[in-house]
Amino acid sequence: MGRAPCCDKATVKRGPWSPEEDTMLKTYIEEHGTENNWIALPHKIGLKRCGKSCRLRWLNYLRPNIKHGDFTPEEDNTIYKLYISIASRWSIIATRLPGRTDNDVKNYWNTELKKRLLGGRRKDHGQGTPASNELDSANGGDQSNELDSANGGDQPLSASTMERIQLCMQLQEMQNPLGVSPLQLWQPNRQVAAHSNNNSSSSFNVTVAEQGQSSPLNDQHLSGQP
DNA sequence: AAAGTCCCCAACCGCTGCATT
DNA sequence: TAATGCAGCGGTTGGGGACTT
């Protein structure tokens, strides 16, 4: 039995927010706060919006001190390091970047940072990017077997996990060309404490990020500079 | 100038975890 | 303890502007 929808899709407004709606929501929250009830909020304000939509709009756009665009190399660096250690936990990554939202970080990663590392277009995803092909061949094209055993050998790695391994390898190469293989850091049984409820198939050891802090990533590489 | 393609990003969808009853 | 409902989260979509042909 599925759960009931949070709002009536036939009566709520969807799509882009108008300036009037933004003003109504912003004014109300600045005066009264969210009152810990997003579902009731639009009714109190008189907005024909879903509570979840109001929450998202406030958190990602209307909240004070929100920054948009113009990520600095330092922010890039932070995102790379945290992605290696905790993967796509965008809300946690965003808390380390003042003024940034999880949605912003996620979009920035998907449109810019990932592209910088993998060198492929989004529409090539799943087909194997030129960069990923290079990586495959550089590892003898038999990466999957090695990874399977590193993963316990009892289940295939998801596409996102494989992609993360590729990204990790790229980052490791930038930081420490002669260093340990990322596969040696692959410890599926050691979950990052903050994400013990993470249902992803695997997790990298957080020491990768700690290592990154003592040995900062090469900003030239990470910012895509020649 | 028009048509086609790319791709950014705001917003939506659906799942999970937690609190409450 | 089980059922329910909400907040929060990550993945995905699609509108529309930018760019290319």
List the helices and strands and how they pair.
Blueprint: H1 19-32, H2 41-45, H3 51-62, H4 73-86, H5 90-95, H6 102-118, H7 130-138, H8 143-150, H9 159-175, H10 207-214, H11 219-222
Helix pairs in contact: 4-10
The protein binds a DNA duplex (21 and 21 nucleotides) through α3 and α6.
Structure description:
The protein has 226 residues and is mostly helical. The protein contains 11 helices and no strands. Residues 120-155 and 180-226 have low confidence and may be disordered. It binds a DNA duplex (21 and 21 nucleotides) through residues 2-4, 6, 14-17, 36-39, 50-53, 55-57, 59-61, 88-91, 102-104, 106-108, 110-112, 121-123, 160, 197, 199.
List keywords for this structure.
single chain, 226 residues, mainly alpha, Arc Repressor Mutant, subunit A, disordered C terminus, DNA-binding
Structural domains: how many? 2
| Low-confidence runs | 120-155, 180-226
Succession of helices and strands: HHHHHHHHHHH
Number of strands: 0
What is the C-level CATH assignment of the largest domain?
Answer: Mainly Alpha
- CATH fold assignment of the largest domain: Arc Repressor Mutant, subunit A
Structural class estimated from helices and strands: mainly alpha
Distance from N terminus to C terminus (CA atoms, Å) equals: 55 Å
Report the β-strand fraction as a percent range.
under 5%
Main sheet makeup: none
- What is the CA-based Rg, rounded? 21 Å
CATH architecture of the largest domain: Orthogonal Bundle
Number of helices: 11
Q: Which word captures the global form?
A: elongated
pLDDT averaged residue by residue:
66
Helix content: 40-55%
The CATH homology group name of the largest domain:
Homeodomain-like
